[in-house]
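sanity check this record:

:::
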Amino acid sequence: MLAPMARRNFYAFALLALLTTAMVTNLAAQESLGDAARRIRSKKGGDASSPVNNAETSQPTIVANTNTDLNATMTALAERDEAAYSTRLRTQLEQERFKVLDDVAAAERTGRTRFPGGGWKLHTFYSAIESPKGKMPATETEWADFLDQMKRWTAQQPDSITAQVALAYAYLNYARQTPSAAGPSATQEGKRVFDERVKLAETVLNQSYNLPAKCPEWYYVMLQVGRTKGWEIEDLTTLFQRAIAFDPEYYYYYQEQALNLTPKWRGKEGDVEKFATESATKVGGKAGDILYWQITQSILGNRDLGNVPQQLSWSRALLGYQNLVEQYGASPIRQNQLAQMAARFGDYMVTDETITQIGDRWDEGTWGTKDYFDKVKAWAKDSAVPFRKIIEAYKAVSVNIATPEGQKYDEVIAKEFSSRYAHAVKDCATHASGPMPTLLVLQMGKSGAVQQMMVVPDNASDVCLRPKLEKAAFSPPPKPEYWVRVALSAKP
């Protein structure tokens, strides 16, 4: 078995070999999406952003790597931590080592590499360099400098699909930060500037479509452009179908289409749930369940959507998460997403267990703020601890009742409780303002006194019955701190 360092080196060299093969192979241009984009634009009246025929574009220029570039490329390819990977890419961009960025992206595309947790490294690549300093908002000066830098990349590497997609993504994010472009404070000037910036993103994508190399992220960004520009759902669906035909495993397409189908954008209530179910069923098996998780998480984890209908299946989403971890391993980001999802579905047990595993590794991208994370953590703990105590107590009851002396004592307690407290139970049920317990789990002291009392279900009211049992004394149990159960009935 290879040692960890040897495995990392083997991984990097293998991807570099794939990269070399990709660089010297002339990939045939795909005709289908160019025609689709032209059709969509013509339906809307046509504009200058229609795809440009680049059939006469020269072959990619292959520039020899220096040892420094090779080392930087290999280090990035071997990185398995998403945050560290993003930081390395940001450093390469800041130093304008564009050849390294192109080589890394080409290798990740060819190798179809993923992080633990199943996230595509290629998607994280673009996320790391899509805006100034890798995050928004940014100042106008920062945007100007950043866009100039991206343009230098496209000028130096004119045949780089990576540079073109990154530039388009930058223009789209720049548009999203346009002041007074939407909402109550929107102005005509703000809308005009916003539209211009989105148009720049669309034009770059259309002009880059016929480059020799293809990139799945091209479709992902174009889906966002289409939604932002107000394309009809039929046109967005056409583009989505082209995208999954290009790469059916690039699940970000499904997440984008699910967003398109929300009532906030182009859909109506029930569309997302139907899309998630049909998509997962069509894929089938564990892969289908994983896709269901990925779609559901992207919708319920999107803070911009607010309160969305929760007719999605938590049990299927949870199964998908378990299959995802089985196939790709766990990751802190996925654990954060699981905890947040469980909280959205009201499953405080899974939320509490997962947050305990997370510890202090909370993810800002998932929660938004530490305050929100802490509130969910407190809610889950407060809800789960009593229930967990009931489970542990009932386990002890099961152990006790499996013995002859336990069975005998269970019968004794049932008779004593019925003769002394049946009337009290009926009286409490008559005057109860909430649900009554159906089962009591009692811990008996050495003398037969009640030391602890838990009610089932856990949301039942015990304010009436608890005071009546605080000083109760029953027959001494077989041993101290002995757990028993008492079934309740309010009927005579």
Summary: The chain is about 60% helix and 5% strand.
